[in-house]
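Hey, weird one. I pasted the GntR family transcriptional regulator sequence into the form twice and got a warning about non-standard characters only the second time. First submission, copied straight from the form history:
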Amino acid sequence: MSEVTRPTLSDALTERMLELIRTGGHRPGDRLPSTRVLSERFAVTTPTLREALRRLEATGAIEMRHGSGIYVGADIERLVLPNPNMREMHAAQLLELLGARIVIEPPLAAMAAERANGAELAALEQVLDAAARHLDGKDAELHDTNMTFHRATARLAGNSVLHEVVDSLLTVHGPEQREILQIFDDRRRDHDEHLSILEAIVARDAAAAEERMRAHLVDVKTVIEQRLHHPPK
């Protein structure tokens, strides 16, 4: 085995921690043994243990509460976990990210139109109502609300794995998504396209919801591609 592919002690310890959680029947919110107890159990130094714990915390598998202890994280049961070690994306990878979303999200919008109930649709409308209040330059809030809309639409499709895929893409590539907002630079147009998608979902028009989500993401990708390749002077 080459030096590049040989698992590190931290890798092995991370897996052993996950195995401890699984075999111990721990659930989100359960308290885990202290770092001292864990260090003794796994026969490792405290710094080595803390490195593994930081990696687990980055994926949401555990939560380290200052002055309280180590707890099983809310994301321990996720099937798809974001990679906290993802490197910065280049322009080509940024376009690939948008391309992936074009493949995944339109069918989910159609599924949301078919199955979402009234309360869920009302909550989705509230998300865009909130977004409308952030169109005057509050980009951090607008970004968060826009991503909430896309996450919620994926969740309403009713497939937890696909929802986690979308959620992971948007979580891992949050900085890229914020950059997209800046490059696209037409917040009203972006918002109007979201409203159009919502209108189709509320009308239970699965075909229109799918087509409008696809058109929206293709529109964003086209603008980003043009501006990356031909930046304004």
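That's the output from the first submission. The warning seems to come from a hidden character in my clipboard, not from the data itself. The beta strands are 31-32, 62-65, 69-72.
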